[in-house]
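Quarterly update from the structural biology core.
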Amino acid sequence: MTPHRTLTPAVAIVLSGLFIAACDNSISNVNGGPGDAITADLGATARDEIEASLSALTLSSSLDPIGTAQIAPAGGGSASPGCVTPSTPLESDGDGIPDDATYIFTAPPCRFTGWRGGTLDIVGTLRIQDPDPIHAGFGYDATITGLRTRFTGADGKNIFDVTRNGTRTLSGSVTSLTLATDLQLIRTFVGKPDAAVDQQWNITYTPATSLQINAAVPSGTLDISGTADWARGNEHFVLTVTTPTALHYNADCSGTVQRIDGGEMQLAGKFGDMDGFVRVRWSECGKEPSYSFEPTS
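Predicted structure, tokenized:
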């Protein structure tokens, strides 16, 4: 049985580089499990999707991601509220969700600071429709087309993109929200091939206090279930996604995008000839989760 392995983000980066050098830039599924480099890449992708899903719980944070701030325009002055305007501003019921509008992102102005010491650029198209434009509520139907987020590290060298196509559907009430996601991702990695990920999962968000229309989401928990199909080079993992310990979102965790301060996600499947799961575990505000692999057979 392969022993349990836990990676800190710094160790994961070093091991990833060693893995590339040893394998002559090839990425392969190994019979003894996914290997530390693959484990780290799967874990980082899951982390990014959790943070993106948190921002998708409201339209305002879909446009202005949680924990970031829009960069002021070149030449001075302050950033105008929101980096993108809807094609059709009609909003009939006062819940902040337009009846049917398209947002086209360009960067700049859709460039943000606050992402792990670096920047985040957003380009692409987001269509938002109110499923019930007569009665105020929390829900929306989103169609995502070529929506790319580019993350640039503080050193300007660690750059990767996540491009999303597909749909998100938000529904709920003052007591909980459900985000149904059906997305196809292309996720780049420094010095490695791109990964194609088919993500189909549901998130149930339970707030600690009652939700209010047109307000930021308070602290609460996220329970996730669904699947993720990962393909990169000769890797192919069909993964079942669960949260055996609900993830805790801390709305009071300020100045960072890393606002999950507890909980665990598992990505279970077959890795080579071994069944097991990649564990993504959060422990505190402002800290990266740890990534590890656990065999089950």
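Residues 1-29 have pLDDT under 50 and may be disordered.
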